[in-house]
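Chapter summary example.
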Amino acid sequence: MPRRTPRTALDKLRTPGRIPGFLKTASVCVLIAGLLTPLTQAAAAEEAAPKATAAANDYCGGQCSDILPPGQNGNATLAQILLNQAFGTQPAHAEDQLGPYANLAKGYPTLTNSTVNTFFNDASFGVPADQVASTVKPAGRGDVTIVRDKKTGVPHITGTTRYGTEFGAGYAAAEDRLWLMDVFRHVGRGQLTSFAGGDPSNQGLEQQFWRHAPYTEADLQAQIDNAVATNGERGKQALADAKAYLDGINAYIDASDKGRYFPGEYVLTGHKDSITNAGTIQHFKITDLVALGSVIGALFGSGGGGEVNNALSLLAAQEKYGVQEGTKVWESFRERNDPEAVVTVHDKSFPYASKPDDPQGEALPDAGSVEEEPLVHDRTGSAATSSANTASATAAKTAMTSAKRGMSNALVVSGEHTASGHPVAVFGPQTGYFAPQLLLLQEIQGPGISARGASFAGLSMYVELGRGQDYSWSATTSGQDIIDTYAVELCQDDYHYLYRGTCTPMEKVEQKNAWKPTVADGTAAGSYTMRVWRTKYGPVEYRATVDGKKVAYTTLRSSFMHEADSIIGFQMLNDPDYVKGPEDFQKAVQHINYTFNWFYADSEHTAYYNSGDNPVRANGVDAEFPVWARPAYEWRNWTPATNTADYTPASAHPNSIDQDYYISWNNKQAKDYTTAPWGNGSVHRGNLLEDRVKKLVAAGGVTRASLVKAMADAGLADLRAENVLPDLLKVVNSSPVTDSTAAAAVSKLQTWLSAGAKRTETSAGSRTYANADAIRILDAWWPLLVKAEFEPGLGSDLYTAMTKNLPIDESPSAAHGPTGSHAGSSFQYGWWSYVDKDIRAVLGESVQGPLARKYCGGGSLSACRDLLISTLKEAAGKTAAQVYPGDALCSAGDQWCADSIFQRTLGGIKHGHISWQNRPTFQQVVEFTSHR
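The structure predicted for these 932 residues follows.
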């Protein structure tokens, strides 16, 4: 039987991606005919004659480009959804950026500066007169115009007042993503199943995010009030902008409801009636923006956590080797500050979260005492099925790991090394692939705002990643630790704890959800209650005993109760009167409290800054492990009522201006700067960029095309093959390979290496990989060799514990990595650094920051060789169907399909697969030619 594709995070959402079989072609046609009578959107909107918009202070000289698949239009009427489901018909601009994006995988080798926009959009400001598709005055307003271009349908919003500008941004966002925005405000509130249906994947999704941010309505409002109160005039402006933005969204809701061109998912999920138009699409309110922000922050900007898992693996190491040696072994695998790790900032130290000389306050659990705190209670109906329970378990595991979705990359080269003398940047966020996409494109021009780029749907009052008049910026997830785990001592019962010496009741926060079958989701009726116990030290995640004392382990995140604070930084980035150079850019992103790496380029300068509210920990506290919830171990000057504390100063965050080049692929930021996820060692996918960009810079004359080529080439590389396989084969070939099966496998692997070790089609559209056998062999070999190499030495218990800290593999087809299958992003988490260091040690080569012991063959070269050949033979004997067993999207044995990228349906429109690429979802290519 085909296996079910595992889902993680947003990949699990179930909305109307499939229409039940009873809607056959004939009935679809009849239904569509009846649905075509309402007003079309164009007729219902106040549309003026097409006219050009003027380019506003654009200093890019036609050399700014961007791309965001599948397409700008993420809304579809019921008729359009049914046509798509029946015939594959696409609404206008629903997937017109998918083809150019996909084509780069085979088109990049011959790329030139003049052909960049074959694969990207022209991101110049404004729309040429002959490219204007529509000009709309939303809600008949005279102070804002929305112009959409013919090629991509991107909205270019121009306002004469600040209110009108933001009203237009809200209106355009709802035009393009209303259903998606509605879904995510319900995800953020933990109410997805009641809104979209009780499919187990929906249950898991709302559980994962509500566990992270279990807010009440009062909590959401308080965060808005605090952000406004603590940011002066900018805070007041942000509130006014948000209100105008909401007015625009709600104006579109009213217009689309009256005109009956609202998204068809509202009908399929039972919120609207297709015949009578009965039902309501709820207006958005300001607290919805905070709920939306909490989801995005949890996905991409909240580094840390995992302290309990760290403690369990440390205890397993100490049980295996004794306290001293076990700690040494554990630290060698943790690689907190590995000297061989690729870094973004060169030759400069930024100490943070380092191992203290004399750890204080550690609260490690007693053996066997840790139990996960249950989130879901009172299950009824379909909520009590085995699939529902499995979804809950997966959600909990995903929420509690430090191996969070990272993704995104950046390549930035200073003008000193470019052909033009101007900096060149190729960068963007790797946010996964969805239909519709989580991000949307827009241009906003108005008083105090001048930018084009991408924003998360529902939070697009400002451009969040993009370009201004003479500068551009982007981000990657950084992952430094802003989440700590505290052991609170229980008193009286399991729901009271000691807070600074006083027995204090925990706060119970609940969300009750119920659902029934709909056309979109036939899951049987069910219900449950999500319950979180909150303490001043954060929500309870585990129960355990420490030295025999009953404790609850809580997680405290510096951005908890501060989801709205980052709005000020984005407001500044959009303000041309604020950002005039790299120093201003750095000051702007210092106002963003989520954990990101920020990159900047203008015509003269480049810059980098790592953002996030990094708490100042008490002396002696080790951020890797739980500590006692006592004043001596709290964050410095921590105020529980507001969850504020002392934070490390801007100068202590990794930062730089005009370095020769920057690369980032969620790798280590700088020397001595410890990040929460494991795996920042000698081999990291950041090396794929580092090696290519360093070579370009050494040669000089870097261009937009050559930097895109470097990104695209890295995006097809198999990290294991490029950086680890050569040494593995060095061991295998240390003596003649006499076994015919092993020799054939070695020959295929060496041929693939000589060809560049890419996972790429034989030709565009062939859906067959070149060197397919070698790729199959390595995919099968890697998990076998890792287990055979390390488990005998570590023992089963410690090996298993370590794999919970860091998965062993994340190949494109791997469904066990944190990103799931068909997600594009690959090779972020894995044991490649461990294998690399161990194999080099066995070969007798120099290793900086080695593992505490040699594992392959117990350190014997001949025994290691035997182990590798044995597992290689086993891997070579596995059929394609065994290596790629198939799922709901691919048949067993289809290697290309197993790797392929699928736009996961978050609404009713489906798209086809594209060939695998490991690259940002939204991406910019920029080279500014002049400056204000």
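To summarize the output: The chain is about 35% helix and 15% strand.
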